[in-house]
Amino acid sequence: MDKHYWIGIDTGGTFTDLVLRDALDGRWVFHKVPTWTADPAKGILDGIAELLALAAVDAAEVDYVVLGTTKATNAVLEGAWAKTGLITTAGFEDILDIARQRRPHYFNLDMPKPVPPARRQDRHGVKGRIAFDGSEVDALDEAAITQAITALRASGVESVAVCFMHSYANPAHEQRALRMVRAQWPEAYVCASSEVMPEFREYERFITAAVNASLMPVMDRYLEKFEGGVKALGVTRPARVMQSNGGAVSAATVRKLPINTFFSGPAGGIMSTVEIGRQTGLKNLIAFDMGGTSTDVCLVKNGRPAMKHERPMGGLPVRAPSLDIHTIGAGGGSIAWIDDGGMLKVGPRSAGAYPGPAAYGRGGTQPTVTDANVFLGRLSPVSLLDGRMQVFPQNAQKALEEAVCGPVGYTPVDAAVGVIEIANVHMTGAVRVISVEQGEDPRDYALIAFGGAGPLHAVDVARSAGIGHVVVPPRPGLLSAQGLLQSAQRADMGVTCLLRAHASNVAAVNQAFDGLQARLADWLRDEGAEEGVEMHCDWTLEMRYAGQSSELAVAVAAPRLDAASLAALCQGFHEKHLSMFGYDMPGRDLEIAQARVAAVLDHHTRAPLEIAAGGTLADATTGTRPVWFAATGYVETPIVKRELLGADLRFQGPAVIEQMDTTTVVPPDAQVRVDPLGYLHITIVIETFESQSA
């Protein structure tokens, strides 16, 4: 049987989005189901079965399945990781607790410390020492390793992290200990820091390896159930999983390195944003993904998404290659509440899919952002998901009155408006974090609105952030799932250099790049990369002023440096430092701390999107209803069916544009243009300081 169907699955906190693509004719089929938080795999498998039935496709015809999952993220945030042990260099057993001097709140004496995954009694030090230059100072005490293995087995540990000093310079001791654990304890999950994060800075390397080890059993069991269920449905191809860096890899790789999947779900939306830029010709974009539980934002500059190699997860500084996605706890399901001081708050707690917002009629009683949107007419008071989900506006009003109006005396309209405005302020702050705080002017960017709730709030957030152009793709509520099928195979690797940025060190940097590219080629080959597909690489140097303890990443145009190109990189570093921090130090020596290479193997062809069908605004308008807008209050507003909007159509707001997967709110002062690919381009006038002063 010919296999030519691809399936992408994005598991969110509230809904699981599924898309099916026919690789032959480019046809897309979309489906959306509530997420089962108690058993995410079951919800996914039920959704796949429904999607196949909806598309009238036999499971045996499926060639490619990609999963975006929040399993690792949830495990860390909830502390639901496996019981983990640590085998480390003698004297460094407490490094997971000592951590760094940096604290998120310097003057909070009662601030709880983040809990590392390995308890103190499950950390064992062994003799043996590697120096910073990779030379052996003391031989490894293998008898002590055997004793540590015996003790960890007795304590009920399920996974082990092996972390020795300076293993990034010479992993021999770690590799020997790793082999001993596997030989003496075959059923244990085990990883070495030199495999997880072979870089300097021992605390970050140790904590990253420990978190990775703690997630290995969790992810293994989750993937086993998922893969078994997919196979039971009749799909014979092995599934792949999205990584935080925007590349899809085999499930076997994810079992070894679950640390690389923290932003697995949101990464799909960012890859779709990059594709949107390619199709529309827009180079500078801000991805704005608002779902039911959270909002994710990411900057795409000159067609390339921003990357980051260290992220706090549960208060722990985890080092793993990731798209620079900034997440806040503001979504459609975010709960509104009154604090002890009588102030209205929104989030970060969420009603999730069950019981969900009060308006869903599933037993939810606490008011949410969705309830505020329903009450103000911004969301349909009748149904969502093309009629599959009934809406109960009276429940939304009751929840607002009981939880917000009663305690502080607000009117229902004031309460609903307050909930919307507070959520918008939170999301505007997130946009500023990835733009203004990085030295970028948001006025130079277009906002790409997606997620189930993104187009509802996009224009308000864009206006607050100073962005005058909002783009809403054809299927915004399912864009992250689509992005999973637009992702390539990708791997990121780095090596510690610790060199002065002098011409005399050019050869050493080139050697580092050569070694990384060779390792990446081997890795992609092991991943089953197709023969004849060209590997594209991006090269980066992490640089700093001599004496600094943090670095800035500077892109390298080509892997072979010479004195002139190194000098240009140094100038680029000065300019970036000035842009981000407001000063530079041209007279000070620069250091190269890390060399990094990202390899991408993109063998997917991009099927053209369907051209928007012909039709006028009158044809697409299904009725009107009162909708509240900040500038006007309630206005009788046209309700427009998205699928009936024709190409090159232009119209003035107000309008509420409805479709199966989302709703787009267009205020009275905004203009809408439908391009030939079906994208909505919403233009708003941004007031500047000069216009306000005129």
From TrEMBL:
One of its GO terms (biological process) is glutathione metabolic process. This is Hydantoinase/oxoprolinase family protein. It comes from Xylophilus rhododendri. It comes from the Bacteria. Residues 503-682 form the Acetophenone carboxylase-like C-terminal domain. Residues 7-182 form the Hydantoinase/oxoprolinase N-terminal domain. Residues 205-491 form the Hydantoinase A/oxoprolinase domain. One of its GO terms (molecular function) is 5-oxoprolinase (ATP-hydrolyzing) activity. PANTHER family: 5-OXOPROLINASE RELATED (PTHR11365), HYPOTHETICAL 5-OXOPROLINASE (EUROFUNG)-RELATED (PTHR11365:SF23). Signal peptide: none annotated. It holds the Pfam family Hydantoinase_A. One of its GO terms (cellular component) is cytosol.
